[in-house]
Design goal:
Layout: H1 2-26, H2 41-49, H3 57-63, H4 65-91, H5 113-130, H6 141-147, H7 153-158
Length: 159
């Protein structure tokens, strides 16, 4: 019994050391996770939209959960949302709602087309991030996106 405990502790230590070593080796490639960089935003967008990395475990492993969440929010705000809004506007061209008809609007608020697109994209991304999937059940990522394009039309277009 004592031997099992020793072996278990040694295996845990070995796994921890291997994880640290892998992170150190990937340091150059994951430098965009240390702070927001516009010129490297495509790397984070890839991680967010790639179903293999959807949980963003690699981010929290590299910089910690708290900093990872903050960094993902910054990339979302500065890079992903604007890109998704452009995709949404391309996929769903709307008549410009930015007209001067507020005096005829019984709700006394007029929402601009860009505000509407931003809100729809935010909601779609939120649902995508919360959507549970088992990566083992996915044989082809392209087929998964095709099957779920009605659920995630804008994100699927970008992915």
């Amino acid at each position: 019994m004592e031997d099992d405990s020793i072996i278990s502790n040694e295996l845990s230590l070995l796994a921890s050391n291997i994880k640290k070593e892998v992170i150190n080796m990937l340091d150059f490639f994951l430098s965009f996770l240390k702070k927001y960089e516009n010129k490297k935003a495509h790397n984070m967008i890839f991680l967010i939209l790639n179903l293999r990395f959807k949980s963003l475990y690699i981010v929290s492993s590299f910089v910690g959960k708290k900093q990872g969440v903050s960094l993902v929010e910054e990339y979302d705000k500065k890079s992903l949302y604007p890109m998704l809004v452009k995709c949404h506007e391309h996929l769903h061209p709307l008549v410009n709602l930015d007209t001067n008809c507020a005096d005829q609007d019984i709700f006394e608020q007029v929402v601009s087309t860009s505000e509407l697109a931003k809100e729809l994209v935010k909601r779609e991304l939120l649902v995508f991030k919360k959507y549970q999937l088992d990566i083992k059940d996915i044989k082809c990522f392209f087929q998964w996106w095709q099957k779920h394009e009605a659920m995630f039309p804008t994100i699927g277009f970008l992915a």
